[in-house]
Amino acid sequence: MLYTHATIITVDGERRIINDGAIRVVDDIIADIGKSSLLKERYPGDEEYDLTGRIVIPGLISTHMHTAQTLLRGTADDLELVSWLCERIWVLQGNFTEADGYAAARLSIGEMLKSGTTCFLESMFADRYGFDGLARAVEESGIRGCLGKIVMDIAKYAQDDAWAMHPGLVENREMSLLGSVKMWEKWNGAANDRIRVWFGARTPGGVSDALYKEMTSISRERGIPVTMHCAEVKADRDFFASVSHTPMSYCDSVGLLSPSTVLVHMVHLDDEDIKLLSSSGTHVAHCPTSNAKLASGICRVPDMQNAGVNIGLGTDGAPCNNTCDLLQEMKLAAIIHKSISYDPTAVPAESVLEMATINGAKALGLDDKIGSLEVGKKADFVAIDVRGIHAQPWFNAPSAVVYTATGRDVDVVVVDGKRLVENGDLLTMNEREIVEEAKKRSKEVVERAGLSSKMTGRWPVE
C-alpha cells in the first residue's frame, strides 16, 4: 500500500520533512519512504491511498495515562490533588467492577486512537479493574499498550495517615507485585507484540522500601520496566525529606533509577536531582495540563533538556485533564515553559513533537520500532487534515501540528500497518456502543460511591 501526496514529518535522525511525500507499507512495516513521484514510479502495482492536504507524523506516544479514569471525566474538577484523590477519585475507583474497567479501557483507547495516539503507557491499573479486560481491549482495538499493573503495600498518600486510600483499592504484595508478574507472563508480547506489561508502582509513601527493592530486582532480572509518579506535589517533597532524602536520592536508594524506568510529573526537583536523573538514564513523562489544573506546579523541562534527560509527554487521566488528546497536550507543553521563563524560544514546536514521538518511544524502550517514520520500522503513523479554514494558511509543518491541530483534525491512523481510523471514524471499535456503555457505567459507579450529590458543580441546575 502506498500512502501518497502528504507532507511527511519523519522525525528521523536528520529530522527530514518531505513535501508531496509517500510511505510504502508492506504488512506491518514501512518498506519505503520518499517523494510520491518516485515511489509511484518504483511500485506501479501498489494500491494508492491519497493523503493530499494532510500532514503525516509518527504515531503519537502518551507516556502517562490512566485508562480507568476516563470513565470519571469531569467528576473532580477544580480540586487540589490530595482532595481530588482521597475524597473523589479513590472513592470512585474503589467502587469499580471489572466490567467498568473494560468499558473505561475501551473509552480511553477509542478516544486516543481518534486523536492520534497509537501507543500509550498505562500508569497504574488496579487489580479490581480487571487487567485481562484492559489487555483484551488493547488486543481488539489494534492500539499499542504498555500496561502498568499497580504495585503497592501501603494504603495512604505521602506521610499523612489522614490521606488514606479507599478500602476497595488496597492491595498487598501478593496481589500487586506477584500479580503483575503473572500478568507479564500471560500478556507480555501478545497481539503481535503490541502489548507490553510493566510494573506500575505507587508514589513513594505508598510502597515500602522492601517492596520497591524486590520489584526493581525482578525488573532487572526479567526485563520488566517500571513507571511511577514522583515529586508531583509539595507533599511528595515533604515525604522524601521525612526519610532524609531528595526525590532522586530516594529513588536511587531503592533501585528505581534506570533506563527502564519512566518517572511521571517530576515537578519538585532540585539541581542535584536533575543531575542524578540525567546520569542514570531514567526517563520523565511530562504532564503539563494535569500539573497546571491540579496546581501542582510546573516541571523544569528546559533544565532537564539542558541536562540531557529524555522527556516524553502524557495526558494523565481524564479527571485531571478532561481529554486524552495528546495534540492538545503538545500545545500547552510548548507554551507554558515560554510563559514562566519569559523566553519565547524555550521548548519550541519541534522539541514538543519529539517528546510526543521519538522521545516517548525511547522512554518505552521501543525506539527501534516506533517513534519515527523510517524504513524497517513499524508502520505506525497519523494523517492530520490541515485543509480546513482553522488550519490555513500554514508555513511550517511542526508548527501547524503543535500550535494549530487538535485531535479533531486527525483523519487517518495506522498502527502495525492496519488502518484503525479513517475519515476520523474508528474502524475496529463501535464508537456508539462504547459511549453508551461508558455513560451507563459511569453513572452506576458514582451512585455506588455515594457521590451523586457532588457531581452538580457550583451553579444551580433546574
Automatic annotation (TrEMBL):
The segment(s) forming the Amidohydrolase-related domain are: 55-419
Q: Does the keyword Endoplasmic reticulum apply?
A: no
List the SUPFAM superfamilies: Composite domain of metallo-dependent hydrolases (SSF51338), Metallo-dependent hydrolases (SSF51556)
What InterPro entries does the entry give? Answer: Amidohydro-rel, Metal-dep_hydrolase_composite, Metal_Hydrolase, MTA/SAH_deaminase
In the UniProt record, does the keyword Hydrolase occur?
Answer: yes
Q: Which Pfam families match?
A: Amidohydro_1
Domain of life of the source:
Eukaryota
Gene Ontology molecular function: deaminase activity; hydrolase activity, acting on carbon-nitrogen (but not peptide) bonds, in cyclic amidines; metal ion binding
Q: What keywords appear on the UniProt entry?
A: Hydrolase, Metal-binding, Zinc
- PANTHER family registered for this protein in UniProt: AMIDOHYDROLASE-RELATED DOMAIN-CONTAINING PROTEIN, AMINOHYDROLASE SSNA-RELATED
Q: What is this protein called?
A: Amidohydrolase-related domain-containing protein
Q: Which organism is it from?
A: Penicillium angulare
> What taxonomic classification does the UniProt entry list for its organism?
Eukaryota, Fungi, Dikarya, Ascomycota, Pezizomycotina
